[in-house]
Amino acid sequence: MSVLVLVEHTDGNIKKKSFEAVQYAAEIAKQTNTTATALVLGTIADNELESLGNYGAQKVLHVADDRLNDLHARAYVSALIAAAQKEGSKIIVMLHDINGKAVAPRVAIKLKAGMVAGALSYPDLAKGFVIKKAVYSGKAFAFVNITSDVKVITVMANSFPLVQGDGKAAVEKLNVTFGDKDFGIKVKEVNKVTGEVSLADAELVVSGGRGMKGPENWGLIEDLAKELGAATACSRPVADAGWRPHHEHVGQTGGTIRPNLYIAVGISGAIQHLAGVNGSKVIVVINKDPEAPFFKAANYGVVGDALEILPRLTEAVKKFKA
Ligand code: FAD
What we know:
By secondary structure, this protein is of the alpha/beta class. Helix content is 29%, strand content 24%. It contains nine helices and 16 strands. The strands form four sheets. The chain has a seven-stranded parallel sheet, with helices on both faces. The longest helix has 16 residues, at 16-31. Flavin-adenine dinucleotide binds next to helix 6, helix 7, strand 15 and helix 9.
């Protein structure tokens, strides 16, 4: 009856946000008097798997099939269902990211489970199994009660502060018999993002919009990001115009990020942009138009020309660090 949680890794290194998913599953396990079991797919060392005990997993099931190093949604579903059957799991947790969004609904359909996508709270068991999630691009919240026997939850990253313990999980190999169709998609090429800081995991993000005027000014964004140890992001028109690569585009049709600090430079603050960033803990907006809508969502705002403000801000950060 263990709570099952799918853990992701990159080249054998567990993603920080997966620790959050494990902690989330462990908290539900605690509240429901059971244990948390992590499922890890692909090539990864045992000591990395054991470290999941630090976040509350008692057991780790490892499917050591190197084909699972790339996302094969159907194979992931087969592995999750095999693990859920083995553990008798009625609650399955994964991240609300590209993998989770591809896998969770398929698992929910196969197991006839109710599902909450993008959980922002632990289930309120006093009211049933009620979970808070954002709707309408973060403009409102819904409180969803999952009444089915089996429950699938995808968890929004950066929503639950991570507390590291000192547990060590027991690692067990799990053999899964995959069907012909499980690997029906062939991954031909993987383009790795080689930025200094990965945007998905970044605590600090400096982001530019059309107000930056052109790609020739992006050095100003990068200089500030470098001084802060931040990742860089951009609005959609900036990526569409080819000023920046598409993997940096955040918003409704781009990535969703929840950093501790989001600095938006020359971005108007359209609802489609806010959808990807309004979970940030602190938002700083730099815009020359005092009426720019982004100021309404900002904790701090600077009205002025970004091309003048950015070099001064970078200098100030340098001096502060010295
Ligand atoms: P603009 O709206 O042109 O704003 C530029 C801002 O820069 C202005 O506020 C201006 O005052 C300021 N500025 C200009 N010069 C300076 C200067 N020198 N110094 C400081 N500030 C300056 N957008 C996204 O970002 N992400 C999405 O995922 C996304 N998805 C979409 C999905 C749909 C279905 C649709 C219809 C739209 C989507 N959009 C998305 C587009 C979105 O509606 C906005 O058009 C877009 O976010 C605007 O980008 P921007 O703020 O960079 O540009």
